[in-house]
Amino acid sequence: MSAGSAYNDEKGGSSNTGEPEYGHDPASGGIFSSDYKRHDDLKEMLDSNKDSLKLEAMKRIVAMIARGKNASDLFPAVVKNVACKNIEVKKLVYVYLVRYAEEQQDLALLSISTFQRGLKDPNQLIRASALRVLSSIRVTIIVPIMMLAIKEAASDMSPYVRKTAAHAIPKLYSLDPDQKDQLIEVIEKLLADKTTLVAGSVVMAFEEVCPERIDLIHKNYRKLCNLLIDVEEWGQVVIINMLTRYARTQFLNPNHNESLLEESAEKAFYGSDEEETEEKDEKEEVAALAKRKPYVMDPDHRLLLRNTKPLLQSRNAAVVMAVAQLYFHLAPKAEVGVIAKAQVRLMRSHSEVQYVVLQNVATMSIKRRGMFEPYLKSFYIRSTDPTLIKVLKLEVLTNLANETNISTILREFQTYIKSMDKDFVAASIQAIGRCATNIGEVRDTCLNGLVQLLSNRDELVVAESVVVIKKLLQMQPAQHSDIIKHMAKLTDNIQVPMARASILWLIGEYCEHVPKIAPDVLRKMAKSFTNEEDIVKLQIINLAAKLYLTNSKQTKLLTQYVLNLAKYDQNYDIRDRARFIRQLIVPTEKSGVLSKYAKKLFLALKPAPVFESPFKDRDHFQLGSLSHLLNAKATGYQELPAWPGMAPDPSVRNVEVKEAVPEWTRCSSREKRKEKVEKPFYSDSEGESGPTESADSESELPSEMESGGGSESEEGGSGSGSEESDEGSESGKEKKKKPEKIKVRKTLPESAESEQSGEEEKSVRKRKERKASSESSSEEEEESSSESSSSESESEEESESEPETKKKKKISLSKPAPKLPKKEISLLDLDDFIPTPSPQVTPINNIVSNSLATDLQGLSLTDSALSPTMISPSFSSVKTYELLHRITGEGLAVEYCFSRQPYSLDPHMVAVQIQFSNNTDTEAKSLRIQEPKLMSGMRMQEFPEIEVLAPGETVTVVMGIDFCDSTQAANFQLCTQTRKFYVSIQPPVGELMMPVFMSENEFKKEQEQLIKLSMGHLMGMNEINEKLTMGEKCQSDHAIVQRVTSAANLSRVPCGSDREYRFAAKTVASGSLVLVTVVTKEGMAAQLTVNCEKMVIGTMLVKDILQALSQ
Amino acid sequence: MIHSLFLINSAGDIFLEKHWKSVVSRSVCDYFFEAQEKAVDVENVPPVIPTPHHYLISIYQDKVFFVAVIQTEVPPLFVIEFLHRVVAMFRDYFGECSEAAIKENVVTVYELLEEMLDNGFPLATESNILKELIRPPTILRSVVNSITGSTVFAEIQGVIDASIKLSGMPDLTLSFMNPRLLDDVSFHPCVRFKRWESERVLSFIPPDGNFRLMDYHVGSQNLVAIPVYVNHNINFKESGSSGRFDVTVGLKQTMGKSVEGVIMTVHMPKVVLNMNLTPTQGTYTYDPVTKILTWDIGKINPQKIPNLKGVICLQSGAPKPEENPNLNIQFRIQQLAISGIKVNRLDMFGEKYKPFKGVKYVTKAGKFQVRT
């Protein structure tokens, strides 16, 4: 240090000469004798006009702070530079300010206005950094300013600024806890945010400010689950830990019925018979229901488990651990196993990580031993492991020991005993002892092994063995008198006090088994009494007392001798013990009463000690937490709640429309949007068709629904709900008993199910009507369009005329969840509906369905389905693709087209219309799909089997494919009764999206946001520009719009300029926005811009549109 | 979350401190020093130390202790993982993470720490994002399009490190000849997990620079033969103060690749005073204080098998060690992945230029221990 200061002195002297001098060692800001002078230099530099000097000065100051030197007296000089234009200087000034503002509150206030200005800056990065520094300044006076800034930033356009706002919340809370209520409001708002960037930070704020407000999570639960995989890793950890706690309060224990189930397994097996007997013993049933009822997991519970599982593969150990603890605490026993492998992987990481992971594995392995058994060898100890790790591994090995693997483990332990690390050897011996107590079969083997260790040359080993043997012997002393004898001999050699004490206790306790040796041992001990350690002396007294009681003839004098020695011992414990024992055992006139019972007191049967793992029951702490590791409650630890006895209402997690208003729409209420959307389209044609006829068909419908619903729901459940099928087949059984409940459950797994079912119900009705009317009416274009509008008007009218249906409808809108059976019906209806349109109707059908879609989406309860009001589908002619040629298909020709209507069963799927025509003269039977070979993530909803296709007939069906926003082909087999054809459907990129309505302003805003979003990562990744020359036919507005909309499923966005054309859509699977701009220029030139988060889609779309426009 | 961070060198000097919330006095480190003293060995310092008002969570890297001060409940792995990320970032920026390097770049270090945590919660921990905010001390911005992946293996555990210098938004797909070998994997967040699940290919849009693409583990059922063998004969005479030491390291099949950088280290028992050995190849040293014998063999020539033999001098009067020491052997094989993993091809989508591709396989024995 002295050398350093000398160096600095020299520097200080020459500091005026210029900056290069400082250049190479900014860290040398030592302050010693030249303290005062040096700071003057710095002040001078800070006051100068040159940014380079300022920067240099700031660098030196920051170096001082880093080394913990006090630089607070520079505060006035530094704070002046807070508005400095140079970004490098500014950053360092911020660092300084945050560090010292607390100490210099008054001066710090000078800087506030700069940050307030920064909060209004058009650049999001500057806004964010201003908020970050402002909220880091711990000055209580500015609390109101901070509060205001946070509130404003929470509704900022930029997700990055919103993230910063979330970070600021705990800062303000720690500064002024009185702001809690207001902050909770902000948290509530930010929790509803849909960007992954914000999710982690706001949950962190939630955990710090109001972890008890679990009710705030309900509405956001499914969103959080679905976003989880895309959240940054640190946010994932926080969210997973929070959701673990949440799940514990909301769902039932999946392992609760384990034992009960076994007991009533037989009954459950014959569950179907129960219905017959149900009436007889209904009361009994109710009582037994709780017990007998097979556990059905809440789909939300399943959602959490499913969405966290892939994160076990994360590179971040904390994420893996978080998932592991989630599975441990929440998953059914049979599924917990998956986490073992991941944890074993973590053990190959840094030793600190190993240490924490092993602690958790130790706890888990007590409860779920089977899970780690296959990885037994991963816990073998290397001689190079640190002792901390060795001991933990030993713990795990001990926990894993059972009858089958014990011999391997014991052999491994034997090697450990030879180790040079004595602490570890001692731990190994204890581990052997524990194995011996836990596994009765090997007790004798272990005991023999330990006895052999008694002749080990290392005293520590012997001592530890003695202690362990003592405990083991207590379990079955009678059989082991020879071991006791052997140990008695050891007293001559062994010097470790604990071991000596143990031997003496053993001999005393079991003196009746070794009647000849015991007095002799006492004799020897009496001789060496004065030289023994205290614990040994106490045991000598004990031994003497016990011998006196059993064999007073031989030992009376010896005992008295020992007691006399003890009487004058330096240690008062020993003196006390001696006095107490003498009173107890030696009968005198006064103490006769007690001495009668002395034998009972001393030689009572003592329970054998239990070898317990220090990790037993540690799982009442949330695993992976600091509290678990320390086995003590840390500050701020949130208890893991016990499972509820009865599941709380799951409907609280259903998301209603108000929460789900997307960022890019202004329409706040569904009604409003519906009105806006539909009126201009349908009002003119309203009332055109006969309402009476459709009202009739309508009135028939509900009864059909009901009758069909009960029986279909089960079939549909097993067929379509492949996701739920893993939840056990019992669900089918329960369905009958509790249809209401099941409905709720069944609809839950998808995030967007709520609107779906609402939508579906509508569509079902529509299709029914359509079917009814289309049979009678002609197939003209106008006719069908009027039909769709009539159906629209009907639904409104009928709601007035038919109270029952009205009620129904209301339910469907306000409580979207319990609607599942209808979903199945829609599947059914689809069959009825599909055969009607003849091939040449396809474009018409398209219009119908598109307007239908508009209608439905207007009604829908979701953010994801935005109405494509601006779409002009009539322009776009639908292109058909060949799936199977007439010749290769041996007479069966199959074509498909993308109908551009939303697929009603799953909004994430693209609807593909498939048309079969039978050109042979025999019937084609059972046309169906088999063995879909899909890329990962892709899903397919097959069309229902076509049983018979008569010769010359044509049939059209609709299937849904979730292409996951990729243009990968979906391969599958098309089967008839006799043949199989390998076919594949490859979507053009333009079909992977659906139109979105937005205004010009919204368009611009979204575009800006997309560009900004990419700044944090790589510039320009969200925007692709391309120049093009228009084709000859693309002269008119109309032609351009038509070409673009036929190339891709886009909707036009109104635009002020007549040289610009804007289009918007979002991808079907992930809902990413796709924004297309075409700007025409002089002549035939034009510029095409595509903005999309999905790079690949953007690039491909550019190609397609280019081609379309330049033809 | 993380309240403060102290960097402490092995001499016990706190040479850097950073606070993200209010300032915590550096006297809190006294608890750490206490624990360090108790642990004797640096590696035995418990990673988590409770103190009356705080919790200290530390890691030890490059002879520097990174001690994070925590005030409230937080998953310990969260902090440990973050500290390791800090270390990785320092290595990325300065090439190493030593005390000297940190002191030399103290301002950059401080700025990095400032950006990596906000109010104790990680903000930006990705190298490519940080590098846009804070420039590394030496600006080496190569415009060359090149990708090299070096595959490093240790026993049956390996990693794929990538070094990507590609402009634009390349979408890469890396496929293996034999992905079935991979038993357990973990990925950089850029890897699309679903494609791995279904197709066993690594599909990703890489961040710029060096990063670890994947960690993997090859199941023990596929355990490939260890390419070297060791013949050893170590004994201590019952009476007298000497023993014999005779060790030969030989090659098993290595598919024509040479085994290099072979180093054997042996922790001798305490009673060994000195060793008097003659190697047929390489050099050996014996440190009588730490009792570590190091034999630097270098490259093994299959024709001439290296051997080290000689006499062990024991402390007279002391009983002979009851156990023979374990032999630790390190080696490296260039151009060969012992696990049998082979990269099949690397394709790039989304950009038009032709990238330079290269793969380097390295086998390295991590903890190869021979129990004698």
Structure description:
The complex is a heterodimer of chains A (1111) and B (372). Chain A is α+β, with helices and mostly antiparallel strands and 1111 residues long. Chain A is built from 50 helices and 15 strands. In chain A, the strands form 3 sheets. In chain A, strands 10, 11, 12, 13, 14 and 15 form a 6-stranded antiparallel beta sheet that branches. In chain A, strands 1-2-3-7-5 form a 5-stranded antiparallel beta sheet, with helices on one face. In chain A, strands 6-4-8-9 form a 4-stranded antiparallel beta sheet, with no helix packed on it. Chain B has 372 residues and is an alpha+beta fold. Chain B folds into 3 domains: 2-137, Beta-Lactamase (2-Layer Sandwich); 156-223 and 336-370, Mu homology domain, subdomain B (Immunoglobulin-like), CATH 2.60.40; 228-334, Mu homology domain, subdomain B (Immunoglobulin-like, Sandwich). Helix content of chain B is 16%, strand content 44%. Chain B contains 6 helices and 24 strands. In chain B, the strands form 5 sheets. In chain B, strands 8, 9, 11, 13, 16, 18, 19, 21, 23 and 24 form a 10-stranded mixed beta sheet that branches. Residues 138-155 of chain B have low confidence and may be disordered. The interface between A and B is large, with 91 and 87 residues.
Tally of strands of chain A: 15
SSE order of chain B in H/E notation?
Answer: EEHEEEHHHEEHEEEEHEEEEEEEEEEEEE
Give the tally of β-strands of chain B.
24
Strand content of chain B: 35-45%
CATH class of the largest domain in chain B: Alpha Beta
- Helices and strands of chain B: which structural class? alpha+beta
User: Are there runs of chain A of 5+ residues with pLDDT below 50, and where?
Assistant: 1-35, 259-292, 657-764, 771-876
Supply Rg of chain A.
Answer: 40 Å
InterPro entries (chain B): Adaptor_comp_med_subunit (IPR050431), AP2_Mu_C_sf (IPR036168), AP_mu_sigma_su (IPR022775), Clathrin_mu (IPR001392), Clathrin_mu_CS (IPR018240), Longin-like_dom_sf (IPR011012), MHD (IPR028565)
Family (chain B): Belongs to the adaptor complexes medium subunit family.
GO biological process, one term (chain B): intracellular protein transport
Subcellular location (chain B): Cytoplasmic vesicle membrane; Golgi apparatus
